[in-house]
Fold this protein.
Amino acid sequence: MSASEPGTAATRERILDAAEALFAEHGLAGTAVRDIARDVGLTAASLYNHFAGKQELYEAVLARGVQPLIEMMQRIDGQDRTSDARAALIEDIMKHLGGRPHLPRLIHHEVISGGSYLAKLGRTWLRPLIATGIAEMKREEEPNWSEEEFPLVITAWLNLVFGHFAMAPILSVVFDTDPLAPESIERQTRFLQKLARMMALSDPGPG
Amino acid sequence: MSASEPGTAATRERILDAAEALFAEHGLAGTAVRDIARDVGLTAASLYNHFAGKQELYEAVLARGVQPLIEMMQRIDGQDRTSDARAALIEDIMKHLGGRPHLPRLIHHEVISGGSYLAKLGRTWLRPLIATGIAEMKREEEPNWSEEEFPLVITAWLNLVFGHFAMAPILSVVFDTDPLAPESIERQTRFLQKLARMMALSDPGPG
DNA sequence: TCACCAGATGAACGCTTGTTCGTTTACCAC
DNA sequence: GTGGTAAACGAACAAGCGTTCATCTGGTGA
């Protein structure tokens, strides 16, 4: 419909959108190609004009979702060091995931299931992401953490950020509020920023 | 085989074991009843002598896995307050999950997918678990956290502990070590205990 | 020895799955 | 108009799914 889009590219994107939502909720095995097609307003057969198969569609969804996170994390590399660069990074990532709440659940599904795409996901996405984080820690002074602990710290942050979104379905059952609502995300962002200050500056105490 | 077991009860337990492993890896939809049966050394039809159906088997697996966690968390309630009670709790939970590494992935699958059992899981398991954690924080002095932040702190701990096991498949790709190996679990345990000291005692700094 | 019964079995069921195929439609260059 | 091409379609396929059922088996108590 849009004159700027070739039409077929727009359809492809709409397929990716619907597939992302369904794959995130039900996983690869739990999602039927027919259901994706119905959400787009197509027939299952039509999807095969845009993707070679279910597996290829799944990997395309993952690749599209993960790409911005890689770029976002790499952007911190050559950046000028301001005192609250980390707070800004946390806010950026939380804002981005807030706009694409399916993404963390999608990645969690793939990670937990150990799918065929997992090795590539580890190499192209998580490894550089963690490497960037560790490099960032090395650049700054870290009074509380030894260098062997850096990977544990970065991994912990990964779990904290992604966990908020991945756990959202059950957390909205336990609490009354929806963790994906803007005010919840903002509250979580401020909480994580406070935690970051603690981990960077505090006195770990005896022991 | 064992004289102490009625035989049928032992078979039931073996079915639960095999189902737990497969459900944790592939989720509910991704696991075939025939595959569970094959791992036990039975035919699919035989499973129906022990469980009414796939859904009932799945819920039985979840209930059996979650029960020890509830009891473990409740044990802290009436306990005498020693200074390092929290460190001991962290160690207990990490040790328990280390012995049952399927459990976190199993729960993650159910949580992410928002399955039919999720509401019950939230009510019977997560809600009391979080309530116990919040009550524990209220009992002690928390110089760094306001009472509205208590739920965020407890949820963060949930993500830190469970995330370590749930993310294990991809972390073993990124790093060389296996996160489920005893030494990795012990390292993570010490890291979390250190983090707990920080969060309980440190100076959050300005801002 | 016999009847009994829980539990294992192979065969079959109805249904859904991913995918393919031949055809039709809609659009664009000439 | 006419030809060509990309994309949507209904129908169909084989394979796999959860589940049922009649039958067989092996052990237990009378």
The mean pLDDT of chain B is 89. The two ends of chain B are 65 Å apart (CA to CA). Chain B touches chain A through 56 residues (CB under 8 Å). Residues 32 and 206 of chain B are 55 Å apart (CA to CA).
